[in-house]
Amino acid sequence: MKSFYRVRIAGTGSYLPEKLLSNKDLEKMVETSDEWIRERTGIVNRHIASDNEATSDLALKASLKALEEAQISPKELDLILVATVSPDQIMPSTACELQAKLDARHCMAFDLSAACSGFLYGLSIANEFIATGRYKNILVVGAEVLHHFVDYTKRETCILFGDAAGAAVLTAAKDYEESCIYSHHMAANGTLADLLILPAGGSKMPCSEEVLKERLNYVRMKGREIFKHAVRTMTDRCQEALDANQMQLSDIDWIIPHQANTRIIEAVAKSLKAPLEKFIITIEDMGNTSAATIPVSFDMAIRDGRIQRGQNILMTAFGAGLTSGSVLMRY
Ligand code: ACO
Q1: Would the CB of 226 count as within 6 Å of ligand 1?
Q2: DSSP letter for each residue of 64-97
Q3: Would residue 127 show up in a list of annotated catalytic residues for this protein?
Q4: Which of 60, 180, 192, 268 could lock 6 by a disulfide, CB 3.0 to 4.6 Å apart?
Q5: Mean pLDDT, the chain, whole residue set
Q6: Where in the chain is the domain with CATH 3.40.47.10?
Q7: Does the CB atom of residue 146 touch ligand 1 within 6 A?
Q8: Whose alpha carbon is nearest atom 44 of ligand 1?
Q9: Active-site position among 47, 185, 258, 261
Q10: Looking at the domain 7-172, which fold is it?
Q11: pLDDT over 70 (residue 176)
């Protein structure tokens, strides 16, 4: 479909809970070591939400910063979209909870489940709503409180995940404005769903005593296989973005990859033949925060001055599903 309006990022915001869970803390919980975790994943710390912080609370803090930056009031929003796999509850959506907390008008609000690719899926949907002229201002949030879904007796998974929220406000670009989203490429391969799954708590396997006994209410993962697919799909989505825009890697100022493992990022860099210096890497201090990872990394790099207006940014992610995606924009 022909786009009538170009779409730009008007503002971003992020929030990381105060409490830290370090590798040293994890050494006391499971048989692991700071050295192993650093070498195999690149992670040192994760942020953990407090007992009275739900996903919508984290989302609220990130959203208020993004709205302030965009100079847009919650009343001007046409759509609130929250990408999460750790919603406040199954129903109502975290997006509706957020809408109430923001005191936004009664605009459309819904959650999106695409795991770590969720924020990019959200950008692609928001882009289309604005490009066709249907909506003007959209808040896209990636927010997770994952620690409730992580089994802290399993060293293979508990070392990886943290809690966070990141947000972006998208608006129609004015004619004279250079900054806009150039393209988005999303994909999913449901035949690989079993590689990364939270088996219980839905309609297929409702919560029961058996579920709790077998610890099926926590994330399960085949790490090595995920690793291979992650490298391949993120590389493919990046290449699709470059080809679609007739760009070379030299045209890209920054690449923001999903942060699941430093070695995955290094392997993507190698596979794309891109210098690692082009990558925004935040995993050391926050681990894998699923849908929050990319918007938090984006916001941090904007606020510390690395990302500047007018630069070309390539974002890429993979996640449970298995989903994957890329978004290429001039910020
Ligand atoms: N501490 C010490 N040893 C460990 C730990 C740990 N925390 N975890 C695993 N090991 C051991 C294993 O038991 C195994 O021991 P063995 O050789 O005696 O059997 C050994 O280390 C090697 O295990 P591997 O699983 O082969 O280790 P690998 O190098 O693959 O690293 C890891 C594991 C970090 C999980 C890696 O595979 C990975 O990052 N995979 C991708 C995971 C991912 O991206 N998940 C998120 C997806 S995004 C989303 O949607 C949420």
Answers
A1: yes
A2: HHHHHHHT--GGG-SEEEEE-SS-SSSSS-HHHH
A3: no
A4: 180
A5: 96
A6: 7-172, 180-330
A7: no
A8: 260
A9: 258
A10: Peroxisomal Thiolase; Chain A, domain 1 (3.40.47)
A11: no
